[in-house]
């Protein structure tokens, strides 16, 4: 499955915004001006406290969710040296966000910074941040590496999800209904947040285990066939096929 398709968690609206930013910047440059408005995407929710002033002790207005797009209207540095951006979250919500909570689709080096954050993340956080990267940086040269990481994180998650599902799905309850047992597994609630990130799982009925369906690895092979990551992606797909057999 193509992981470039839109997903609710990192809204398709982000993709539209990214496109609009490109159009605005191109138009501004053609007229000898630089657009005064920028779009940032929240990637580190640990730092995404929206405050009423550019200070870490400022009043908390709300926490901005990972993947949310905000409009930058200004900036200010606090007394202790932390840079804050004045942001517009919606027509009624404005405040100040710490710089490091955000990445910018058109700022040089932000794809590298997000990749470092992805590498330092674990489990679902790695999947979610990789999803943001894939949606926001469609032309980054780092994309093959992130596609590989996305798939690896999904397959690692499949191990834990298999264990969780085996404990939570009651055999007697499943047998009491007429639905196929494997359909209970593929409807398991633990899969939901991964599905919202574009992760699809296959289910090995004999071993009763989930495996990553392999969409991001196939994308590496299809779009970047000569990259080092393509050879690794082929190896991972072959290993999944062998496991299911």
Summarize the structure.
With 245 residues, the chain is α+β, with helices and mostly antiparallel strands. Helix content is 45%, strand content 17%.
Strand and helix layout:
Blueprint lengths: L11 H19 L7 E5 L6 E3 L8 E4 L5 E9 L5 E6 L5 E5 L3 E2 L6 H11 L2 H14 L6 H26 L2 H5 L5 H6 L5 H4 L5 E4 L4 E4 L2 H9 L4 H17 L1
Antiparallel strand pairs: 1-4, 1-7, 2-3, 4-5, 5-6, 8-9
Q: What percentage of amino acids are in beta strands?
A: 15-25%
Q: Note the overall shape.
A: flat
Radius of gyration: 21 Å
Regions with little confidence, pLDDT below 50 for 5+ residues: 20-36
Main beta sheet strand tally, sense and closure: 5 strands, antiparallel
Give your account of this protein's structure.
The protein is of the alpha+beta class. It has helices at 12-30, 110-120, 123-136, 143-168, 171-175, 181-186, 192-195, 215-223, 228-244; strands spanning 38-42, 49-51, 60-63, 69-77, 83-88, 94-98, 102-103, 201-204, 209-212. The strands form 3 sheets. Strands 6-5-4-1-7 form a 5-stranded antiparallel β-sheet. β4 and β5 (83-88) form a beta hairpin. α2 runs antiparallel to α3 and α4 (143-168) runs antiparallel to α8. Mean pLDDT is 85; it is low at 20-36.
């Amino acid at each position: 499955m193509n992981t470039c398709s839109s997903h609710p968690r990192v809204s398709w609206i982000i993709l539209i915004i990214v496109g609009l930013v490109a159009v605005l910047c191109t138009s501004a440059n053609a007229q000898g001006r630089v657009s005064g408005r920028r779009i940032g995407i929240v990637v580190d929710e640990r730092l995404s406290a929206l405050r009423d002033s550019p200070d870490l002790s400022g009043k908390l207005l709300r926490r901005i969710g990972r993947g949310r797009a905000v409009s930058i209207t200004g900036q200010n540095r606090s007394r202790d040296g932390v840079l804050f951006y004045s942001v517009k979250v919606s027509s009624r919500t404005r405040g100040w966000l710490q710089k490091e909570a955000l990445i910018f689709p058109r700022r040089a080096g932000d794809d590298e910074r997000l990749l470092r954050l992805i590498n330092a993340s674990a489990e679902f956080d790695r999947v979610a941040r990789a999803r943001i990267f894939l949606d926001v940086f469609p032309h980054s040269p780092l994309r093959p590496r992130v596609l590989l990481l996305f798939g690896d994180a999904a397959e690692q998650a499949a191990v834990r999800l298999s264990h969780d599902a085996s404990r939570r799905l009651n055999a007697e309850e499943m047998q009491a209904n007429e639905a196929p047992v494997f359909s209970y597994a593929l409807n398991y609630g633990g899969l939901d947040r991964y599905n919202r990130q574009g992760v699809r799982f296959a289910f090995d009925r004999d071993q009763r285990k989930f495996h990553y369906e392999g969409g991001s690895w196939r994308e590496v092979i299809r779009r970047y066939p000569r990259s080092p990551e393509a050879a690794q992606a082929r190896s991972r797909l072959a290993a999944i096929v062998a496991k299911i057999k």
